[in-house]
Write a structure and sequence with these properties.
- With 157 residues, the chain is an alpha+beta fold.
- The protein contains six helices and five strands, in the order ααβαββααββα.
- The chain has a five-stranded antiparallel beta sheet with strand order 1-2-3-5-4, with helices on both faces.
- α2 packs antiparallel against α6.
């Protein structure tokens, strides 16, 4: 009887260990260029969208290389508020800082477009902002449903 209890206990222990391993966090790895390109090509934007150089991105988002590992920003000509940003934070500790910078960028855009092109406030009032692992993704467009679908293709496990 004792051997049987030990065998059953051993089997249960192995099953429990296996189940615990399934719950481990897997590190997210995104190709930020692919995500940004998929958003740009998968959504119809009103304005012409072009990739922005990193120094300009850092200035617009009030971020630095100490906080950001890599980033892609695709912006409009300025006639609309349309924008894509896919940002990889330097570390898990920096994700909240990057997300806050994205939110501040949206608020800044709201102030700028309020008197300039008020209809752009609709886009800015409900932007797509997604955080997954060390990544923060922003998409300001008229098609939030499509933007979310594209992002979900890349971030679902």
């Amino acid at each position: 009887m004792t051997k049987r209890v030990w065998k059953i206990s051993g089997i249960l222990l192995l099953i429990a260990a296996g189940l615990c391993a399934c719950g481990e966090k897997s590190e997210v790895a995104l190709n930020i260029n692919e995500v940004a390109e998929a958003l740009q090509s998968g959504i119809t934007f009103e304005d012409q969208m072009n990739q922005v150089e990193l120094p300009i991105f850092y200035a617009l988002y009030n971020l630095s290389e100490e906080e950001v590992d890599d980033a892609v920003m695709i912006g409009s000509t300025g006639a609309t508020a349309e924008e894509i940003a896919v940002i990889k934070a330097k570390s898990e500790d920096m994700v909240d800082k990057v997300k806050e910078a994205v939110s501040e960028r949206v608020e800044f855009q709201k102030e700028g477009f309020e008197n300039y092109v008020p209809k752009e406030l609709e886009k800015l009032s409900d932007p797509i902002i997604v955080t997954k692992g060390n990544y923060v993704i922003l998409c300001v467009s008229e098609d939030n449903t499509k933007a979310q679908e594209i992002i979900d293709e890349y971030i679902t496990e």
